[in-house]
Amino acid sequence: MGLNSADLLKALCYPRVKVGNEYVTKGQTVQQVYNSVGALAKAVFEKMFLWMVIRINQQLDTKQPRQYFIGVLDIAGFEIFDFNSLEQLCINFTNEKLQQFFNHHMFVLEQEEYKKEGIEWEFIDFGMDLAACIELIEKPMGIFSILEEECMFPKATDTSFKNKLYDQHLGKSNNFQKPKPAKGKAEAHFSLVHYAGTVDYNITGWLDKNKDPLNETVVGLYQKSSLKTLALLFAAAPGEAEGGGGGGKKGGKKKGSSFQTVSALFRENLNKLMTNLRSTHPHFVRCIIPNETKTPGKNIW
Question: Entry's Pfam families (predicted)?
Answer without folding.
Answer: Myosin_head
